[in-house]
Each structure stands twice: as C-alpha cells, then as structure tokens.
Amino acid sequence: MSPTIPVTFQLEDGESFSGEVPRHAIVHEAMERLLPHGFLKNKRISIAQSQSGDLIYPDMFCGEIYDQYGDAQLRITARALPEGEAARPWRNLGFDHLALSMVDRRAAVDFFSRGLGMVIMRDDEHLAVLSAPHGNTALFLFEAEAGKPLSDGVPSRIHHLGFVVDDLEAAYQHLRANFPEFVSDFTLLERLERWSLYGKISFGGVTFMIQLSQIKDAYRGFPDARLYADLMYDYSSRHYGVRFMPG
C-alpha cells in the first residue's frame, strides 16, 4: 500500500488544487499543504466528498477517505466572514474540553477510564476522547510524537483549551477587534455537531491554543436541562468523529 494518496480540493468556482499527502494525514493538514496561502483566512468552510456529498470533518484521515470512497476528491464551500459589522453581545457558555499532549497516552486513557470512570468516546492514532458520564465535559488526549497529526512532539503540556459560545461570529468579531495578539486564521470549520474557530495566544512566554465552538441547534442540550446548559454538546451521546475502518 502506498504511503501517500492523491487528494484534490475542488472550489466552487471550478478551480481545483491537488497533490500527494501521507495516508495518515488528516484533512486539515492536507488543506494547509495544498490550498493557496491565505485561502483559509476569514472563512466559514464546509468540506464534502465530491460524489456522495457526505460531510467530511477536518480531523478525518485522508487515507481512510480514499479507501472508503475510492478517491479523496473533496469539495469546499467557503463563505467570507462579515467585516465591519456593529458589535453584538455574545456569551462564553463555559469550559467544554481540555486537550493534552501525552507521552504515555495508553496509561492516561486507562487511568481516566478505569480509575475515574470516564467513558471512552474515541481512541485511535490521532486522538482519544474521554467523556464525563453525563457528557458535559471531555478530555482530548493527543500523542506527543513527531509525525503524528498536528503533533510537534512536545510532551506533557496543554494541547488546547475548548470553550462553547452562543454566537461564534460575534466572538470572532470581538477577538479581531479587541485582541490583535490572538493569532488566528479566523476560519470557522464545520463538524457534525459544531462550528469551531482556533487561535493561539501567549501569556508570559507560554502559548495556548484556544478553540471556540458554537454547537448546532440539533445537538444542543441534555436530557435534563435543569442540570446542564441547554447550549452545550453532550459528549456521551455518540462516538466522537468518524472512522472508516476495514470491514
């Protein structure tokens, strides 16, 4: 099996960009590699498989997409985010997940699941997701190993902090206007359950990656709204992400 596969991103105007990427690369890495510099900035972006129209997540593995559909022909819908609009109020609804880079991720998954009773919602070479039993918060554990998707090989540190907001575009406008030190492409990326914005900010020489998410209407809330915010995502409701595994 070839270690690389061909990936093509087709834009709405008919232009396309193609190239070879490692099978284990995730879609987000392929976008950074193949799309023109600056294309991802200030956009709301959805990705679909060209023939089926199936939604493709930024953290899906390119090789698995190729094997599942017979190709990795991906269609991108990109909408420019509004500029210069009047500021409107928005709320930070609270902590959603903590992401850590781990040297011994196996031991960490075992401790948090068997030791602390968290539920494993995903566990593969890219990411392990463990949910609180009621799903209101989660741990994301990444492998601190160079060559893994989105890993710089630095162990024992916070990978990123995840928060849920009620109006992601309003938060985007607020950050752009008030925190120029928040370094981001200001790209809104779509998953099944949410839209997300990523950026980095440094405090005292320590850099944090921050993820802000707005949960889609159909995935908001918990069975008992008295206990949990009705705008949060329930991690315990389903496996996190999509893997196309051999039958």
Jot down its keywords:
single chain; 247 residues; alpha/beta; Ubiquitin-like (UB roll); 2,3-Dihydroxybiphenyl 1,2-Dioxygenase, domain 1; 12-stranded mixed β-sheet; 4 helices; 12 strands; 15% helix; 35% strand; globular
CATH topology of the largest domain: 2,3-Dihydroxybiphenyl 1,2-Dioxygenase, domain 1
How many beta strands in the DSSP annotation?
12
What is the structural class? alpha/beta
Succession of helices and strands? EEHEHEEHEEEEHEEE
* Largest sheet: spatial strand order: 2-1-4-3-10-11-12-9-5-8-7-6
- Specify the helix fraction band: 10-25%
Please describe what this structure looks like.
The protein has a 12-stranded mixed β-sheet with strand order 2-1-4-3-10-11-12-9-5-8-7-6, with helices on both faces. It is an alpha/beta fold and 247 residues long. It has 2 domains: 4-80, Ubiquitin-like (UB roll) (Roll); 92-237, 2,3-Dihydroxybiphenyl 1,2-Dioxygenase, domain 1, CATH 3.10.180.10. It is 15% helix and 35% strand. The model has no long low-confidence stretch (mean pLDDT 86).
Topology:
Blueprint: E1 4-10, E2 16-22, H1 27-34, E3 43-49, H2 62-69, E4 73-80, E5 92-102, H3 105-115, E6 119-123, E7 128-131, E8 138-143, E9 157-165, H4 168-178, E10 188-190, E11 194-203, E12 206-215
Parallel strand pairs: 1-4, 3-10, 5-8, 9-12
Antiparallel strand pairs: 1-2, 3-4, 5-9, 6-7, 7-8, 10-11, 11-12
